[in-house]
Design goal:
Distance between the termini: 24 Å
Radius of gyration: 17 Å
Oligomer: single chain
Shape: globular
Number of domains: 1
Order of helices and strands: HEEHHH
Strand order of the largest sheet: 1-2
Structural class: alpha+beta
Strand content: 5-15%
Largest sheet: 2 strands, antiparallel
Number of strands: 2
C-alpha cells in the first residue's frame, strides 16, 4: 500500500513534464516565421481510488475560478515541498514540480487541487493547516 501511494505521488509530480502537441511554422504578412507552441499538461495518478473519487467530486456546482485553484495550489505545493525535505515525512518524499509562473490551465489546476483534498480528507494525511473549507 505504501509503495502504491508513493508511486501515485511520484506520478503526480510528472505535471512539470509536458508534451508538445505540435509546433507550426507560419509566415506572417511581413515574411517572418511565426512559431506556434501548443503545450498540453496532464496529471496522471495510478491511484484508481483517486480517479473515481475525483469524478464524483468534479461537478459544475462545486467548480471555482482558475485563480482560486492556482492560489491554493501554490500554497499546497510550497508546504508539500517543505515537508519533502523532512526525512520523517515518508509520504512527502518527492517534490511537486509546479511552477507558479507557468500557465497549466483550468483542468490541471482543478485536478491538482482536488488531489490535495483527496490526500487530506480521504487518506487523512494533513498537508496544510488552515486549508480551504471545501465541502466534499
Amino acid at each position: 500500500m505504501k509503495k502504491f501511494l508513493i508511486l501515485s505521488v511520484i506520478i503526480l509530480f510528472a505535471i512539470a513534464c509536458s508534451t508538445q502537441k505540435g509546433a507550426m511554422n507560419d509566415k506572417s504578412k511581413d515574411g517572418k516565421a511565426i512559431e506556434e507552441d501548443n503545450l498540453e499538461y496532464d496529471m496522471e495518478t495510478f491511484d484508481a481510488r483517486f480517479e473515481s473519487w475525483y469524478l464524483l467530486q468534479n461537478g459544475p456546482a462545486k467548480s471555482r475560478s482558475l485563480e482560486y485553484y492556482e492560489n491554493w495550489n501554490k500554497q499546497y505545493v510550497s508546504v508539500w515541498n517543505n515537508k519533502s525535505g523532512n526525512t520523517q515525512n515518508k509520504f512527502f518524499e518527492s517534490i511537486v514540480g509546479y511552477d507558479p509562473n507557468q500557465e497549466y490551465g483550468f483542468d490541471l489546476n482543478q485536478k491538482l487541487f482536488y488531489y490535495f483534498q483527496y490526500v487530506e480528507h480521504v487518506l487523512k494525511i494533513k498537508i496544510m493547516p488552515g486549508g480551504p473549507n471545501v465541502v466534499l
